[in-house]
Amino acid sequence: CIGFTWIASPACTELEVAMMDWLGKMLDLPAEFLASSGGKGGGVIQGTASESTLVALLGAKAKKLQEVKAEHPEWDEHTIIGKLVGYCSDQAHSSVERAGLLGGIKLRSVKSENNRLRGDALEKAIEQDLADGLIPFYAVVTLGTTNSCAFDRLDECGVVGNKHNVWIHVDAAYAGSAFICPEYRHLMKGMERADSFNFNPHKWMLVNFDCSAMWLKDPSWVVNAFNVDPLYLKHDMQGSAPDYRHWQIPLGRRFRALKLWFVLRLYGVENLQAHIRRHCNFAKQFGDLCVQDSRFELAAEVNMGLVCFRLK
């Protein structure tokens, strides 16, 4: 199917809504991210985490443009865009920088502490930019960095983002799968302060590539930013079910929700949890072997399934 609208394939859209709620409940995401909560929130399956980072950035950009125009009607769009600035840790994935390039905005790399982005460093960067007449609008918080699987302090950065009206996007591309295990959920502390969250079931949850799960607290900013509604795409059910073409960069889309449906039905939550725990256990065992061998040393704390080690 080419499931860009509900009418093009009702099953494609409706199964995706249901699967994203199943997955959100498995992770114990705050209710406001779920379609079943009856609020604005909901999930969508993107192709990759880099796509999700860009979609969130474009939603945040549209939101901030509208807010600033209301405050300064005399400013034109180019003036506002020239002042926008986003933030990420110096440990963030290169795709975050790329999202800034594609979105046409300045992105500041904030120095991390022990590989983690802390709230005070983010606050300092934001206050410096405000003093320079810039407009902070977006920050990416990484849970499980590529370099060392470090976890930015979402609980601290979320408070700072909310205080300064900055969109907080949480990128948990690899490590997010582990949040199906209750013992790792403390690493998600502060998720209720985020505006969007993404992880890749195709990385560590036995789902075929491509399947990148993204949740938005208020999808209307993304929907309005991407909404071009020609007559030939209109249908009678508009508004009652999501038209996912407004939630993503491409127009057409595949039936990705089927992949999630089959994996969740075949394995069940307990088997998927066992799979994650087994890998984390392997990493811990291997980390212990490195520590016991005088020729090797650990370059970073062992997190999840990642061991950073080197020959002395």
TrEMBL record:
Its EC number is 4.1.1.28. Keywords: Catecholamine biosynthesis, Decarboxylase, Lyase, Pyridoxal phosphate. The keyword Lyase applies. Its cofactor is pyridoxal 5'-phosphate. Pfam families: Pyridoxal_deC. Coiled coil: none annotated. InterPro entries: Aromatic_deC, PyrdxlP-dep_de-COase, PyrdxlP-dep_Trfase, PyrdxlP-dep_Trfase_major, PyrdxlP-dep_Trfase_small, Pyridoxal-P_BS. The keyword Lyase applies. GO terms for molecular function: aromatic-L-amino-acid decarboxylase activity; pyridoxal phosphate binding. GO terms for biological process: amino acid metabolic process; carboxylic acid metabolic process; catecholamine biosynthetic process; serotonin biosynthetic process. The modification N6-(pyridoxal phosphate)lysine is found at residue 203. One of its GO terms (cellular component) is cytoplasm. It is an enzyme of class 4 (lyase). Gene3D superfamilies: Aspartate Aminotransferase, domain 1, Type I PLP-dependent aspartate aminotransferase-like (Major domain). Homodimer. Belongs to the group II decarboxylase family. This is Aromatic-L-amino-acid decarboxylase. It comes from Drosophila nebulosa.
